[in-house]
Specification:
Layout (H helix, E strand, L loop, with lengths): L1 H19 L1 E9 L5 E7 L4 E8 L5 E7 L5 E8 L2 E7 L4 E7 L3 H4 L1 E3 L2 H29 L5 H28 L4 H7 L15 H17 L4 H30 L7 E3 L5 E3 L7 E7 L4 H17 L4 E7 L4 H11 L4 E3 L8 H5 L7 E5 L5 E4 L3 H11 L1
Parallel strand pairs: 1-7, 11-12, 12-13
Antiparallel strand pairs: 1-4, 2-3, 2-5, 5-6, 7-8, 9-10, 11-14, 14-15
Helix pairs in contact: 3-4, 3-5, 4-6, 5-6, 6-7
């Protein structure tokens, strides 16, 4: 008798422990009798159906899952247009009640602070989309000559957007470890465009703050890694743009200088050629178009080199042997330099080179007076100059 009682206690304790190691989503969907309710998990790259149930007359449902190792986004869905987004954590027992006619706008929940945050963000997004669309409609209906009214609506549009961004930013600063902030950063307008822009300096602060925090507290999380790399990618793109802007700005009064080594190891600076008309040329031994263009350059160089024309050529090679052999085989008589960093070449980056061959024509005074001049276009330009 005692042994049987002991076994019952063990079973009950085991059952209790098992329950504590699971999360649960349960509740009631009114007006949903006969409809199938799907329970899905939104991973970074796909949405997976975990379970489903056909709702009975009372509309009750219940789903369970193994303990969550990190906050996760879940869906309760009747159709692709009728669903609820939840954010469950660990072993939460979330309770949901809603009307099947419109789950998103009718649902109420308890026992999940993360899901409550998601609900707030979604509600604000619905309101924002509605208000912005109203402003756009009013703008379209305006008399185009009414500049004052147009400016007022433009200001109203911007204020609505700024207020929402400020709300998201304030939330992230106050809750830097919340995945709800991740959700808010990637919300979109009705037209599909993203509200928060990682390329905007102000918005990027929020992306960076959350990325750093989530990466610290959830180092193995795919979403944390995604956000962290997303921010790094944006910053790298901004650096490339800065290089390009630097080039354009300096082109007004000069050019970004370069000093790289020839095959023999001699370093030659582009600026050392000031006073001559210089063709800054980018090529590679492995690029057929570059090798073909070199044949034309040899004719131009032979014709004008004694008149003050010089070519400063930069190779995007990785192998010194192949680079040097190409110079010898093609009998290239001008200055040839390289940092042997292939497509990561520093000179190519600061001159925003996107394809080969590429070139810039620089005047004796240091002004960039032409870009990507090939064949007859280069011939005509040099004939004009000399």
């Amino acid at each position: 008798m005692k042994q049987s009682l002991f076994l019952v206690i063990i079973v009950l304790l085991t059952s209790a422990c098992s329950t504590k190691e699971k999360y649960k989503i349960s509740g009631t969907i009114e007006n949903g009798a006969g409809k199938t309710l799907y329970f899905q998990k939104m991973d970074l790259n796909e949405t997976t159906t975990l379970d489903s149930t056909k709702l009975k007359k009372n509309g009750q449902f219940s789903f369970k899952g193994e303990r969550l190792t990190e906050p996760s986004f879940l869906l309760l869905k009747l159709s692709d247009q009728n669903f609820i987004t939840l954010m469950a954590d660990s072993t939460e027992a979330i309770e949901v009640s809603a009307d099947a006619k419109n789950l998103e706008e009718s649902y109420r929940l308890s026992n999940s602070i993360g899901s409550a945050y998601i609900q707030i963000f979604n509600k604000r997004m619905r309101i924002l989309n509605s208000e912005l669309e109203k402003v756009i409609e009013d703008y379209k209906a305006l008399d185009k000559k009414d500049k004052e009214a147009s400016e007022e609506l433009e200001l109203q549009y911007q204020e609505l957007l700024t207020d929402h961004k400020a709300f998201v930013g304030e939330f992230i600063m106050e809750h830097p470890r919340s995945y709800a902030g991740y959700y808010a950063l990637f919300q979109r307008f009705n037209d599909g465009s993203q509200v928060m822009n990682v390329m905007d300096q102000k918005d990027q602060v929020y992306f960076s703050t959350l990325a750093t925090s989530l990466n610290l507290f959830y180092p193995d999380s795919e979403r944390a890694k995604h956000l962290y790399n997303y921010v790094l990618g944006a910053k790298a793109q901004q650096q490339r743009q800065a290089f390009h802007e630097k080039l354009m700005n300096e082109a007004e009064s000069g050019f970004p200088d370069i000093e790289e080594a020839t095959p023999s190891g001699e370093k030659i600076a582009l600026s050392s050629l000031r006073g001559k008309t210089v063709l800054l040329s980018f090529w590679a031994s492995w690029d057929k178009a570059s090798r073909k263009e070199n044949n034309h350059l040899k004719k131009m160089y032979k014709k004008y080199s004694k008149s003050g024309f010089e070519i400063y050529q930069i190779s995007l090679d990785r192998s010194k042997i192949l680079w040097e052999n190409a110079i010898i085989n093609d009998e290239l008589p001008w200055i040839n330099v390289s940092d042997l960093r292939y497509t990561d070449s520093y000179p190519a980056r600061i001159y925003n080179v996107r394809q080969l061959p590429a070139n810039y024509l620089i005047s004796p005074g240091g002004e960039i007076i032409g870009k990507d001049l090939f064949g007859n276009r280069l011939t005509d330009k040099l004939d004009e100059l000399f």
